[in-house]
Design brief:
elongated, about 35% helix, five-stranded mixed β-sheet, Nucleotidyltransferase, domain 5
């Protein structure tokens, strides 16, 4: 009589290595994200000691001295910046927008961007400054 041996195969997924990898990736992103500050070189207006410096989770929109609009470091027309901000809001309805306007930027260009964002429903729109 031959004896048949049946081996029990372990067909379950081992979660421990996957959790370890995900934890390391999370730590790497948490450390490197604050170092990846993007934007263009602007001379921000000076305000009092309680200046608005921005939020790490906010969309950064910049207006340079020549009145050009930038989303992070990418130059775009005003309406395209607004369209992309609306697309980002689809993922996060409580999105904050920080507008960085150069000291020598046209006031109308900065307020035009702010007004357009308010018109499409953004409630949290701020102006970035640097402390005195």
């Amino acid at each position: 009589m031959s004896r048949m041996r049946r081996r029990q195969s372990d067909s379950g997924i081992q979660l421990t290595p996957m959790i370890d990898v995900m934890t390391v990736l999370l730590a790497v992103f948490m450390v490197t994200t604050p170092m990846m500050t993007t934007g263009i070189d602007l001379e921000l207006p000076r305000a009092g000691a309680s200046a608005m410096t921005g939020n790490d989770h906010a969309i950064q929109i910049s207006v340079d001295a020549r009145g050009r609009y930038f989303l992070s470091e990418m130059e775009l027309p005003r309406d395209e910046v607004v369209k992309r901000a609306i697309a980002m809001r689809g993922e996060n309805p409580n999105l904050t927008i920080m507008i960085s306007g150069d000291t020598h930027a046209d006031y109308g260009a900065v307020m035009s961007m702010m007004g357009k964002l308010k018109d499409v429903g953004f409630q949290k729109v701020g102006l970035r400054t640097q402390p005195e």
